[in-house]
Amino acid sequence: MIKNLIFDFGKVLVDYDFEAFFRKNIPDADRCKELTPLLYNENLQQVLDREIKPFNEILEDIIKQYPSFEKEIRMFSEHYPEIVIDEIEGMRELLIQLKNDGYKLYGLTNWCSKVYQTLEKFEIFRLLDGYIISSEEKVTKPEPEIYQILFNKFNLRPEECIFTDDREDNILGGRAMGMEGIVFKNAKQYKEELMAEIARHSNKK
Known about the structure:
alpha/beta; Rossmann fold; 2 domains; elongated
């Protein structure tokens, strides 16, 4: 029986747009084009999400590498939460419905410590019964440890959970730990797949 629903944050509960952020804050199109791949790439996101050293120290290291971009990198650090632009359409209403139906709702996200400003800003996060943030744990999805931390902290049984994330590799990581998963596209698609998955579990003998 499914009792717990687990949600990634970015592109599931809230939307973000790095490229729009850079275009807005760096009027010089050429500098913007040069800087964007330096600060928006998979390797740096992994470093920030794990945050073995504090966020500001990581950015100071980047400034040392690219001193000509110091002003823009400090802007990026100061205004980082503005990358998140809104809640995902339809998800707050759906979470309210699911909570009223008796499901426990949890978050599991790869995000740096700046996430706390996002948590304060958007109402949708107040619907969660708890969450795990990678930068607190120093481990990221899809590593097995972060799923186990989730299960242990909230006393969850994997077979009673369904996890949704916009990245299939993170869903596969959860499945490897015994938790069903749905690759998120939008609220309508998620609800349809969720209801089908819940029905399938309810029909198990």
